[in-house]
């Protein structure tokens, strides 16, 4: 287990550019980034995939307790009414003496990770042979892949995501947020372009936003058009993303989220999950999103309003 990008100094720099107030601390066997979020009812602290506790350090429960006291002190100083944590350790909250409530997972609780170790032939054996054939013949079939770091090009991803979001009922990020993400040194936007035979104009049929941090490439966001689906653009793109990660000497490819094992066929991630599991990776489960409640009355009102807003968005 390594420090997730969302608990890194680089992610703190992103928060700064977004105008967010945050608290970042590195200590012996731990690291955390806590972002101060505002609501109409007051403020709360959010630790995306955090706090990070180095695994295998004993006694772990003492380290967890010490880190939570630090975070609780920040919370008290900023008069927040709850703390939202997403630790990677599955039993992180087991011995915490706080009033807690399981919340809807913001970052995926389960993910699929591909190990990039070994030579090229060993990596190829972990990839779906069908997609490798599509990738090999991509250019012959009019498909090319470009890499962009121009924040204005995020429009390609946004436009593709809109159609997908309407179909699957998935929430998307704002244009400002995604542009700021792409402006970071760890981000790259991949664009799959298709030029039909005997035509001089190409169109973007798939796009993917990836982050490279430490030893991992995170495949955060992607979408394709109906034409892209027919051309297997997402599969071709994913093969390229993995090959490029390997070429950069990264060790892992994180597909960033899969549906739970018991998810119904109606789960919005079901199709994505089936696709991701065609790669010879491994499932990794985290703790999920939990709220530590500091002011129960205010928190309960917040939950009611939040649930109503979610219901209205679905409608």
Give me a quick take on this structure.
With 315 residues, the protein is an alpha+beta fold.
Structure explained in plain terms:
The structure is a single chain. This protein has 315 residues and is of the alpha+beta class. The protein folds into 2 domains: 5-107 and 287-314, Aminopeptidase (3-Layer(aba) Sandwich); 110-285, Gcn5-related N-acetyltransferase (GNAT) (Aminopeptidase), CATH 3.40.630.30. 35% of the residues lie in helices and 27% in strands. The protein contains 10 helices and 14 strands. The protein has helices spanning 9-17, 60-77, 120-124, 129-136, 154-168, 175-182, 226-230, 233-247, 270-276, 296-314, and strands at 21-27, 30-39, 42-47, 52-53, 80-85, 100-102, 110-115, 143-148, 187-194, 203-213, 216-224, 252-254, 282-285, 290-293. The strands form 2 sheets. Strands 1, 2, 3, 4, 5, 6 and 14 form a 7-stranded mixed sheet that branches. It has a 7-stranded mixed sheet with strand order 8-9-10-11-12-7-13. A hairpin with a 2-residue loop joins strand 10 (203-213) and strand 11. The longest helix has 19 residues, at 296-314.
